[in-house]
Write a structure and sequence with these properties.
The chain is of the alpha+beta class and about 100 residues long. Helix content is about 30%, strand content about 35%. Strand 2 and strand 3 form a beta hairpin.
């Protein structure tokens, strides 16, 4: 259940707004994920191939203005440099399509 922000803000010992927003975002992503998977499953032939695809990507960043920037191994830089790495998960259904269902930085 997602609690409206205006209700949460006035309750004694309320969660910080950041925690409420994070929970709302996770709930929304979960609903979108279920919707996308159901749509792909409905459009696929029975018994068709289903695959989860992982993709790890890195991007070099200079400076410290971007959240998550740190010194780490960057394949695109060929060694250790400042940057961010992200991992993406896609749900792929043969003959129906694919959808991004998860990401992590």
């Amino acid at each position: 259940m997602i609690t409206p922000l205006h209700d949460e803000a006035w309750r004694p010992n309320a969660q910080p707004t950041e925690d409420v927003l994070r929970g709302a975002a996770q709930g929304a992503m979960s609903a979108v994920r279920r919707f996308a998977i159901a749509g792909l499953d409905a459009g696929a032939w029975p018994g068709s191939l289903t695959v989860g695809v992982l993709d790890e990507s890195g991007q070099e960043k200079k400076g410290s203005a971007t959240a998550g920037v740190k010194r780490q191994h960057m394949g695109c830089a060929g060694g250790i440099d400042n940057g961010i790495n992200t991992v993406h998960l896609a749900y792929v259904r043969a003959e129906a399509g694919h959808a991004l269902i998860g990401t992590h930085q």
